[in-house]
Write a structure and sequence with these properties.
With 464 residues, the chain is of the alpha+beta class. The protein contains 20 helices and 13 strands. The protein has helices spanning 9-27, 29-48, 50-58, 62-65, 78-90, 118-123, 141-152, 159-171, 176-188, 200-209, 211-217, 234-240, 306-322, 332-342, 350-355, 367-371, 380-385, 401-412, 426-433, 440-463; strands spanning 6-7, 69-75, 94-100, 108-114, 127-133, 174-175, 226-229, 264-269, 273-279, 285-291, 295-300, 361-365, 389-393. The strands form 5 sheets. A 5-stranded mixed β-sheet has the order 3-4-5-2-7. Strands 1-6 form a two-stranded antiparallel ribbon. Strands 8-11 form a two-stranded antiparallel ribbon. A hairpin with a 7-residue loop joins strand 3 and strand 4 (108-114). It binds 2-oxoadipic acid (OOG) and nickel (II) ion. Residues 70, 72, 129, 226, 228, 296, 407 line the site of nickel (II) ion. Belongs to the 2-oxoadipate dioxygenase/decarboxylase family.
């Protein structure tokens, strides 16, 4: 077979993302409602802001917005994580970033599998926040051993998914028929199972140790626990959710409302209580329930440099010293006020964010720049001042540990807060993953540098 017969990994990712969305829509109807609401708000926002529409069109980002989503899964063993990496690689998704959530009382550490590079991100930025359970953080040794034994006997991938992943690795890709089959087979891993693999008694003990442990250990596979469409106005979607019969989380996670959106803002609706059958020791099935799957929306802003990120972390910490958001929403207004006040030192214009080196930008030639005969050696600042070069924010494609913890917590139940000693262990995670995770800052810096190099090359071509 020739290489030209292969479907691109970007296309396989798009097929997979669409299939996952359709499956989740059928399984969790409130997700479909949320999608409709987000689509409507996005249209209204674009209609009200022609300049935003124009910038998104110019940077090739408009088409991707309504297609855009992320999901999350929680895995049980190193072997599952390592195989998951290989499955995602077939779809052009690679591990970026390391997130330690133990500090936030959640016994997992995580990465995000996502496309890397400007072209792939523009095609389809679908990503999956992927956590690995850390049984080492569970105190009860007997329970830990039982959980490990239970996880050791499950197989979360279908034989077809494994076979096609190996085939893709050997051939360097999949043809159209194989790609379609791969999507169907891989999707099985993410499906919901309403029959637990553990007895009611064991479920209760796992649940008492930590709700998340029960969620990972009790089932046949790592059901997708949420899918998150991207909105252009998260405050509006949050405000309108109740009109659509959806009860939102108390506060929006991340930075406050601003003119120039930074990083990532997220909110969710609470996880559903779903019926589950548990098999008792005597073989009989007992009815019970489990709470895991929810819906979330996100608004993405500019990716920050290490300097910008440090400022963000400082300001967020400062606001939380004033008010910590209560899970019941009772101090939501105070929290929003404290957050907005804490963030006043963070400049709110693209010019200032750029001038202070707080964010990453993609540079391109203006109309004037495209016709210009001068300036290839000039400094970037003077090219901008002369109106030859313009800049657009580079979108943050990753996650925020404090926000992720807030999302985890609101869906684990408000009584689920537990303290673990902070114990980031990126080395262990990478060993289990079978690869290093990419550093997100290097990645954004690379996109920025490439855009500057393109401008310079085009300017010198114009001169020649
Ligand atoms: C993942 C929570 C993290 C996000 O958007 O920050 C996340 C989980 O609950 O498994 O998806
Ligand atoms: Ni999420």
């Amino acid at each position: 077979m020739t290489k030209t017969a292969f479907v691109s990994s970007d296309e396989i990712r798009s097929m997979f993302s669409a299939a996952m969305s359709a499956m989740y829509r059928a399984e969790v109807p409130a997700y479909g409602t949320l999608m409709d609401l987000v689509a409507r708000v996005n249209l209204e926002t674009l209609d009200a802001d022609p300049k935003l529409r124009e910038r998104l069109e110019d940077t090739d980002s408009l088409n991707r917005i309504s297609e855009e989503r992320h999901g999350a899964i929680r895995l049980g063993t190193p072997a599952e994580l390592a195989m998951m990496r290989r499955v995602f690689a077939v779809m052009g998704m690679f591990p970026v970033g390391y997130y330690d959530l133990s500090t936030a009382g959640v016994p997992v550490h995580s990465t995000a599998f996502r496309p890397v590079g400007d072209a792939s991100l523009k095609k389809n930025p679908f990503r999956v926040f992927t956590s690995l359970l850390r049984l080492d953080l569970i105190a009860d040794e007997t329970l830990r051993a039982e959980a490990q034994a239970t996880l050791a006997t499950r197989e979360i991938f279908t034989p077809g998914a494994v076979e096609l992943t190996e085939k893709a690795e050997q051939q360097g890709g999949l043809d159209r028929a194989d790609a379609a089959r791969f999507v169907t087979e891989a999707l099985e891993t993410f499906r919901w199972h309403d029959k637990a693999r553990v007895s009611p008694d064991m479920y209760a003990r796992l649940h008492a140790a930590h709700r998340l442990v029960a969620d990972v250990v009790s089932f046949k596979g790592p059901h997708i626990n949420h899918l998150t469409p991207r909105t252009l106005d998260i405050d509006l979607v949050q405000a309108r959710m109740p009109d659509y019969g959806i009860a939102p989380k108390a506060v929006v996670e991340g930075p406050p409302t601003r003119k120039c959106a930074i990083l990532l803002r997220q909110t969710s609706f609470k996880a559903l209580n779903e019926p589950v059958l548990f098999q008792a020791e005597d073989g009989s099935w007992k009815e019970g329930s489990h709470t895991a799957r929810f819906g979330e929306i996100e608004q993405r802003g500019i990716a920050l440099t290490p300097k910008g990120r440090a400022l963000y972390d400082d300001l967020l910490n400062a606001s939380r010293k004033v008010v910590r958001p209560a899970a019941d929403g009772s101090n939501a207004a105070d929290y929003e006020k404290a957050l907005a006040e804490a963030f006043t030192p963070f400049p709110d214009s693209w010019e200032a964010i750029r001038a202070e080196g707080l964010g990453y930008f993609a540079y391109s030639l203006t109309e004037k720049g495209r016709k210009s005969r001068a300036g290839a050696e000039a400094s970037l600042d003077s090219l901008i001042a002369d109106g030859l070069v313009q800049f657009d924010p580079i979108v943050y494609e990753d996650f925020l540990p404090v926000s992720a913890a807030g999302i985890f917590q609101s869906n684990l139940g408000d009584d689920a807060t537990q303290d673990f000693a902070a114990s980031p262990n990126q080395q262990r995670f990478e060993l289990d993953l079978g690869a290093k995770v990419l550093n997100e800052f290097d990645h954004y810096a690379g996109i920025e540098q490439a855009s500057i190099a393109d401008c310079r090359q085009m300017l010198s071509a114009v001169q020649a």
